[in-house]
């Protein structure tokens, strides 16, 4: 019975595979490479050649476009620049996002170039746009997975080990959902920490600020009150002198023998009698009349003010008490006006309100934080359950593959521990444990395992990496996989099994492998041969794609030496057929 989910996944991988591959590699003026081009196929590419022919140089050149350090001593011609250029065809989401985030052209064909100038300066380009080495490395990691002999760092990395289990558990979508919730929770936790620190600082001053505010609130000062009180005290204190002066002025205006108001009235009358004799007199009459009216009005106001002024000892005492309280507050707060005191009162009110608001804000955010934590924990537990389900089948499958590749006594198991704290990837600590020499028939409970990074040798890790990647590749799409002589130290049936695994892996992924093993070379879809030749009196490295007959000859040589026997040729044909 067909599995529709598996069919869909396979179709998706088939589509992606065709759009995530290294199409061509061009190398110029690197070590003993003058200039060469390699056009790779989309499945299994095998590179062979005699020791010293330049296979490692080829990998060194490839490393340049993967962002590794440039060795300027490897320029063959010191008067020409060296450059390595890789052309990829990719339609991968992560690659597109990288190009968009770095404002780079996002075409399906992607060209990565690294140049070393004659002055030893190194430059990197993505689609002809200059980029940093860091950017180059980031993009290259999405396009190429290079595994070299004794390169054990990735397999021993705990993040990689977790990623393997998540890939097999198909946790991608769940992890994305979890991380969205977890990031929200973590951001909210940071905000809460800041708010609580702010609240703690504000609370330490709350009681003192409350006292200051209540003191000012109780004083209940009005706008400009202290300044007005000061003026009023001066007025009442000098009431007698002020009243006497006002009385004198009023007397002169209205009640003396010749009051000024009456004198002005008489002058107005005299001017009116002259109006018929001179045209300018009428204006003068009007002006004098206006002055007389204004003087009469002034006299009335003086009388009114004078009646309202009187000495009040009790009121002076009250005002002095109020003023004393005001002066005390002015001195306490180091200010000089009522307006400044009122401003301080408003600031204290705002500070007290802020503490109250912080308490409410913190309460709301704490509830939201708890809800986000519950959601994140539930998702983490779901992800953890998926990981736990993969532990046993993963170990069994890898151990079976290890037997196939010549490690019959090797065993791997996965430790998945649940932690109390959540992190970006859930609540598990995942680690691969390994034992390279488990005697046959030893009960499982007697096996002694150590962390993989501590006990596995380079050769063991290489075959283990191949086994693991072949399993992971069935669940997720990997970048172009490059294996550089990871089959060192094996031969015969183990080498044949490594070739079978690579062939299976290359159905859905582009695989490039440098090998000395004829059993692996025989599995190639495309077989390249690296060799040295003399050109213009110089020894250079060259490479060519082998046809069917050349493949048979090359594999026969790999089987029996420079002069292969008829049996070696037949054996080579048999290897290729099978």
The low-confidence parts are 1-19
CA-atom Rg in angstroms = 48 Å
Strand content: 15-25%
Mean pLDDT: 86
Strand order of the main beta sheet, please?
2-1-4-5-6-7
Question: How many beta-strand segments?
Answer: 15
Distance between the termini: 29 Å
What is the subunit organization of this protein?
A: single chain
Helix and strand content put the structural class at alpha/beta
Shape: elongated
Query: How many helical stretches?
Result: 19
| Residues in helix, % | 55-70%
Q: Main beta sheet, described?
A: 6 strands, antiparallel
Keywords:
about 575 residues; alpha/beta; six-stranded antiparallel β-sheet; 19 helices; elongated; disordered N terminus
Can you characterise this structure?
The protein has 578 residues and is an alpha/beta fold. The chain is 57% helix and 18% strand. The protein is built from 19 helices and 15 strands. It has a six-stranded antiparallel sheet. Strands 8-12-13-3-14-15 form a six-stranded mixed sheet. A three-stranded antiparallel sheet has the order 9-10-11. β9 and β10 form a beta hairpin. α10 packs antiparallel against α11 (281-308). The chain is elongated and about 160 Å long. The two termini are 29 Å apart. The model is unreliable at 1-19 (pLDDT under 50).
């Amino acid at each position: 019975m067909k599995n529709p989910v598996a069919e869909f996944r396979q179709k998706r991988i088939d589509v992606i595979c065709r759009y995530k591959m290294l199409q061509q590699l061009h190398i110029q003026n690197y070590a003993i490479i003058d200039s060469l081009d390699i056009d790779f196929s989309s499945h299994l590419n095998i590179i062979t050649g005699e020791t010293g022919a330049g296979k490692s140089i080829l990998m060194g050149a490839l490393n340049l476009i993967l962002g590794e350090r440039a060795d300027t001593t490897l320029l063959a011609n010191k008067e020409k620049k060296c450059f390595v250029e890789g052309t990829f065809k990719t339609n991968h989401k992560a690659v597109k996002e990288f190009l968009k985030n770095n404002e780079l052209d996002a075409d399906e064909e992607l060209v990565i170039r690294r140049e070393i100038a004659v002055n030893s300066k190194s430059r990197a380009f993505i689609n002809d746009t200059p980029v940093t080495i860091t950017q180059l490395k980031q993009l290259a990691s999405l396009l190429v997975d290079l595994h070299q002999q004794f390169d054990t760092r990735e397999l021993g990395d705990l993040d990689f080990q977790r990623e393997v289990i998540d890939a097999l558990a198909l946790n991608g979508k769940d992890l994305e959902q979890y991380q969205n919730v977890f990031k929200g929770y973590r951001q909210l936790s940071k905000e809460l920490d800041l708010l609580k620190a702010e609240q703690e600082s504000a609370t330490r001053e709350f009681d003192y600020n409350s006292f200051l505010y209540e003191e000012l609130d109780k004083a209940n000062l009005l706008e400009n009150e202290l300044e007005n009180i000061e003026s009023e005290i001066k007025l009442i204190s000098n009431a007698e002198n002020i009243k006497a002066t006002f009385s004198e002025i009023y007397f002169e205006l209205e009640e003396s023998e010749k009051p000024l108001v009456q004198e002005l009235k008489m002058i107005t009358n005299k001017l009116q009698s002259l109006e018929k004799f001179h045209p300018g007199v009428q204006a003068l009459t009007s002006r004098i009349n206006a002055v007389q009216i204004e003087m009469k009005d002034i006299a009335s106001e003086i009388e009114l003010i004078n009646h309202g002024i009187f000495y009040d000892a009790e009121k002076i005492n009250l005002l002095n008490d109020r003023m004393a309280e005001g002066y005390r507050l002015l001195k306490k707060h180091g200010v000089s006006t009522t307006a400044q005191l009122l401003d301080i009162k408003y600031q204290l009110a705002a500070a007290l309100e802020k503490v109250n608001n912080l308490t409410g804000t913190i309460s709301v955010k704490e509830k939201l934080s708890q809800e986000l934590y519950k959601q994140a924990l539930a998702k983490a537990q779901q992800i953890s359950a998926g990981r736990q389900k993969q532990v046993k089948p993963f170990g069994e499958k890898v151990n079976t593959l290890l037997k196939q590749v010549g490690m019959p006594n090797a065993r791997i198991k996965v430790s998945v521990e649940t932690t109390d704290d959540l992190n970006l990837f859930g609540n598990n600590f995942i680690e691969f444990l390994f034992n390279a020499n488990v005697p046959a028939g030893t009960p499982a409970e007697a096996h002694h395992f150590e962390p993989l990074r501590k006990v596995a040798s380079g050769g063991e890790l290489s075959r283990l990496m191949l086994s693991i990647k072949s399993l992971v590749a069935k669940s997720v799409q990997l970048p172009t996989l490059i294996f550089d002589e990871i089959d060192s130290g094996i031969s015969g049936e183990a080498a044949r099994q490594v070739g079978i695994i690579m062939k299976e892996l290359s159905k859905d992924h582009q695989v490039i492998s440098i090998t000395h093993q004829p059993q692996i070379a025989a599995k190639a879809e495309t077989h390249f041969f690296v060799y040295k030749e003399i050109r213009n009196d110089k020894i250079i490295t060259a490479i060519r794609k082998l046809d069917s007959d050349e493949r048979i000859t090359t594999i026969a040589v790999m089987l029996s030496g420079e002069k292969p026997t008829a049996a070696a040729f037949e054996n080579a044909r048999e290897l290729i057929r099978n």
